[in-house]
Amino acid sequence: MTRFPLEQFRDISTPFYYYDIDLLQSTIDAVVRASSRRRDFVVHYAVKANSNPRLLRLIANAGLGVDCVSGGEIRTALEAGFNADSVMFAGVGKTDEEIMLALEKGVGMFNVESEAELDVIISIARESGNVAPVALRVNPNIDAHTHHFITTGVEDNKFGIDFELLDPIVEKCLKNNDCIDLQGLHFHIGSQITIMRPYSLLVERINDILKHFEGKDVAFRSINVGGGLGIDYEHPDEHPMPDFEAYFDVFDRGVPCINGRKIHFELGRSIVGQCGSLITRCLYVKQGIKKKFAIVDAGFNDLIRPALYQAFHPIQNLTHRDCQNGTYEVVGPICESTDCFGENVTLPEVRRGDILAIRSAGAYGESMASCYNSRRLPGACMSNELT
């Protein structure tokens, strides 16, 4: 359970992100423990979930690899101590400069999302005298039944290569083996997946594809199954981390690790999601005709998920916990109607100056923050920095 040092919070300018480092370390330990029991499993942290350098250094020190989706993330990861050969470089729109950077740094893998991208990598690698290690991202056409904004593995998504188009692209890789090292296949079916059934379907699709290429005498040394493992936003203290054992077991039982084949994972939210909370102060309590508003100093520039995805985050009143409960719409100061963190939120009576915690905000919170309305970016505070 995350404990909030309220007295120390009173002296910190809000809004800011507070990270429970003990919980993060326990989560990392659970990931390492569960994955290391399976031979040939390699876990990469997805930087897009949270790129705070202090968190990245902790994750890098645990020996995890890293999943990056931009040249900026590659630089950030390397500065935090990740090894270049542990970098999986994904993304549908890699620029020429980013491709060149990845080749110069010696990243472990390019996750290639289209034939057009492959052609550019071939050209740049050949011209620069490099060999690009490649995994082809396959669109498995599996609906993970999450919010439609965060599905990534169905036919109408922009991500990946449809299976029907895969054969000639594999052949092109093999024909250009002077500058392309085709190592494997890459998959990703979505985010915030909380049941194992979609992953079981993914395993079936992977095995069908492997069998298809075995018939063509094409073997893959690497299978990247993506990530997307969700967290419990409803009950963060009761379930501070997902069931990593069950997650890895699906792939341990389903995907054959033969001839030294490695199974790669890209976990982001499930590692950092629960350790972070957005801390904010109440500016005003406004009584409307039908609603009571708790207007706080955090806005959707600080945490955009509720506005962008209609995402739920639990909210706690840290200042008053034993007062009579009221029902509030918790909103921010941004000049947009969508600047709302929660409707019909039951909280102990909220008063001006009360400190609230918006929970389960460690993933896609600080990393998606902006300066909209010319507001400053939120700060960050680690639990081990407070005494």
Distance between the termini: 18 Å
- Percent of residues in beta strands: 15-25%
Order of helices and strands: HEHEHEHEHEHEEHEHEHEHEEHEEEEE
Instruction: Tell me the number of structural domains.
Output: 2
Q: Rounded to an integer, what's the Rg over CA atoms?
A: 22 Å
Structural class: alpha/beta
The percent range for helix content is: 25-40%
Uncertain spans: 146-154
The CATH superfamily of the largest domain is known as Alanine racemase
Named CATH architecture of the largest domain: Alpha-Beta Barrel
Under CATH at level 1, the class of the largest domain stands as: Alpha Beta
Give the SSE layout.
Layout: H1 6-9, E1 16-19, H2 21-36, E2 41-46, H3 53-61, E3 65-68, H4 71-79, E4 87-89, H5 96-105, E5 109-112, H6 115-128, E6 132-139, E7 161-162, H7 166-175, E8 180-186, H8 197-214, E9 222-227, H9 244-254, E10 262-267, H10 269-272, E11 276-287, E12 292-296, H11 305-309, E13 315-317, E14 325-331, E15 340-348, E16 355-358, E17 379-382
Parallel strand pairs: 1-17, 2-3, 2-10, 3-4, 4-5, 5-6, 6-7, 6-8, 8-9, 9-10, 12-14
Antiparallel strand pairs: 1-11, 11-12, 11-16, 13-16, 14-15
